Amino acid sequence: MSDALHDPGTGTPGPPATPVLSATGLTVRFGGRPALADVSLDFPRGRIVALIGPSGSGKTTLLRALCRMNELIPAAVTTGSVRFEGAELYAPEVDPAEVRRRIGVVLRESALFPGSIFHNVAFGPRASGFAGDLHALAEEVLAAVGLWAEVGGDLDLPASALSAGQRRRLCIARTLAVRPRVLLLDEPASALDPVAAARIESLIHSLAGDVAVVVATSDLRLAARVSDVTAHLDRGELVECGPTGTVFTNPRSKRTEAYLTGRIP
User: Fold this and answer.
1) What is d(CA 264, CA 102) in angstroms, rounded to the nearest whole number?
2) CA distance from start to end of the chain
3) Which domains does the chain have, with CATH numbers?
4) Residue 64 and residue 143: Cα distance in Å, rounded?
5) Contact in structure between 101 and 175 (CB atoms under 8 Å)
6) Helices H, strands E: what count in the chain?
7) 173-193 pLDDT, tens per residue?
8) What is the pLDDT, as a whole number, of residue 265?
9) Which backbone phi and psi does 201 adopt, to 5 degrees?
10) Which three-class secondary structure state does DSSP give residue 52?
11) Helix, strand or coil for residue 239?
């Protein structure tokens, strides 16, 4: 795991980055079938970690395990450890709802709530007992994702009226509204046109200074452009993890090299 604590893209040691989230021996089974096998990985504060690998490699399962969402699936059994700022997230006394507030996740299939832009942004803070100015908070997070200027500040606009890229960014804004310390993004730019995808990439870069960002993606170009650290998963196993520049240009694992060059049979 120490490979993740290097300067991005250089492969040379840099100042230590404190992990805000750490998985150790994390294993997830669905009905006895392992979907994630003994994964140990650190997620440093202020860095962007990309999870790459083919479909079925365990990327989304890992994201869901980091925020205790797999337990919403009756057949799922999770073992191992996930520590957030030193606290064990799978301890019996830990409230999963609180975990999902501190660790925000936007899954590929995330859908907006019916109703207005404001309703979507305000739902989470209201449920969490936020007592501040909801309209000011909405402006803040919508500005952070670049939507405030685009919608002209019209918070009553139906969320369904937004474009696909705008809806994806609204899902992220909705998650940011509850002030997560970690943001998990599953295929954030999939099925978007190049302009919308570029806006998502720019947004990911802008968020990294405030939160740890984990991006699961099948788009190798996106992973190479946005991440500091890349972890390659295959068949539920962590094959390799290191500075993105090193993983993409000089991978240690032959399996990673084969995946990056498209030589997997």
Assistant:
1) 37
2) 29
3) 2-260 (3.40.50.300)
4) 27
5) no
6) 9, 10
7) 999 999 999 999 999 999 888
8) 55
9) -60, -45
10) strand
11) strand
